[in-house]
Amino acid sequence: MERHGVTTSEDADTIEAAVDLLERFEFTEYEARSFVALCRIGQGSARDVDEVSQVPRARVYGCMEALAERGVVDVQEGSPRTFRAVDHDEAIATIERRTTRQLDQLHARLAALSAPERGSESGDVWVLEGVAPVADRLEGLIGAAEAEVLLALADPSLLTDDLRAAITDADAREVEMLAASPSEEIRAALRRAAPHATVLETWTWWEEVPIQQGAISAIALLDGSALLASTRLHAAGASDDHRAVWTDGGAVPIVGMMRPLLESGLRRSEG
């Protein structure tokens, strides 16, 4: 059986990243390390796995049994027993099916516990702080938009891959989209994400880019009823760099006032 030689630092980083990701899908650390080791050697005995996994041999058998129950390891009886990792595509598909079942079960439990649905005219206003929470909320609001998206975006840290995907999906659903930014980098990214959208240059709320502390980082109005406005709190790079207020109910007075003001501000540089 072919043996792996010295593990390079790059290999070690890849191994640790794979172990970390597997642990997020409910593998124990030893199970994750055993599976990664088996993927590296293809197949082998508990002793073979022990030599490359940093898992005590006495624990390898239990890990292999657990991994076999998960459907990601095959077992060949013998003396000693031989273990083989399934193809990595098959392993991912197996993990995905298990996760989907768990998410379906969670959805059913949460639905049974949900409060009565509130009306679309709710006047609640909420506060978010941090780059990821603000970007995630923008993604969710744009993902739920049915007819219109007005978006002003000035900070590239908010234009995450998931937000780009939500913008692309809205564009594919033929949601009318008007977006603007003072940044050519952001405008180019928006045009790539939403080829049917109107994307403009605007300096209505900004004097320079990168934007400075205290400046507006994003404004979004969705279907005339959901609104998010965020500002930069600190120097770029801080995890809590943005704070946003948002609402998804049209009863908040400022929502009705914002549509003509926002559209005017977005189009101010047009022509």
TrEMBL record:
Superkingdom of origin organism: Archaea
Protein name, per record? TrmB family transcriptional regulator
InterPro entries per the record? TrmB-like, Tscrpt_reg_TrmB_N, WH-like_DNA-bd_sf
Q: Which Pfam families match?
A: TrmB (PF01978)
Q: Which residues form the Transcription regulator TrmB N-terminal domain?
A: 22-87
Where in this chain does the entry annotate a coiled-coil region? none
